[in-house]
Amino acid sequence: MRSTVHLVTTADYRSLRPWAQPALDRELDTAFKTILTGLDRAAVAESGRALLGARHLTPKELVAALHERWPDREPRALATVVRNLVPLVQVPPRAVWGVGGTTRYATAACWTGAEPASAADSEHIVLRYLAAFGPASVADMQTWAGRTRLRPVLERLRPRLAVFRDEHGVELFDLPDAPRPDADARAPVRFLPEYDNLLASHADRTRVISEEARKRVMTRNGMRATFLVDGQVTGAWKLHPGTASATLEIDPFRPLTAIERAEIEAEGARLLEFAVPGAAHDLRDGTGVVGRAGSRTMSRSYHSRGAPRAPTTRAARTAGSAWATGRVTAHAVAATSRGRRFRWRCVPATPASGHAASGSWPWAYGIRCRSRRGPDRSGARTRGPTRSCR
After folding, report:
1. What interhelical angle do 10-30 and 122-133 show, nearest 10?
2. CA distance 374 to 365
3. pTM for the full model?
């Protein structure tokens, strides 16, 4: 849960805002502590609320209006106080799929007609997290939430959860009715957008991205879009859309087998058709166009390095009511993992009120895990498979 914009439903906004408020307060108390010393933050927040209640403002306009009243204060710090203390939304055309526009703020109360919940419902949020990212440890949840002391919440929920242990003895929690995929199901190729929550919602991220790959993915201002091969980040990608044609550029981090390239081609063709329907589609590997997306020619034009693996069974997992935060996209990522072999799922998101988003991302995360049964800490048998990684 970063201090950034999220695409959520109005109902989820009401529960998530009070949950995220401690992190927003902490930002003001740390990064802006010196600049805001002696400032009446509540007065600044009320001023911003009145300004945005009168009309929608761009960040620049909000900064200028606040600076008129507090000319001796750092302008952007004033705007940060409003953003962190007053629930805001970015009004359309922001968050409309395929449409760009200048950011304009409105208060969430005016735009949605709803106020945040009076207090955070920790148990509800933890259950929603597990629906998306379970099985997960306490440390995983705290990494995602940016909060500590969640162990008591899990203890209260324990009778309602399935409890497992990983190969290191770390206790994992999950929803008891979560689907259990076959242990040997191979994860298909999947393309992830920039700063996907899948890569930032667990304490141990090596289960999906190696340290070497992480260094190539992380940038100064964010995270590159990546693709998964058999559940591991194996490269990055970038879409170059045009009116008549579109090119998907991939940057593999290691040699790919012929079968892996064919799978990347097929999934890339789906991505291109979804993102730029009706245009001519090409796929580029960083050295040049290697073929027409979805054509047999492109598969043959790849330079094969390494022996291709025998085809294996694919599986995909879907979930019902699940959401994820951290990216402004037209989809909600629901992921489940433990170790380097894991399972993932993806479901469409319901667009937030006032944030029309057409379509949903046409991919679901693959599934891969190895299972074994084992006792929990008390010595009793677990109610489901323990994830064992290799």
Report:
1. 100
2. 27
3. 0.68
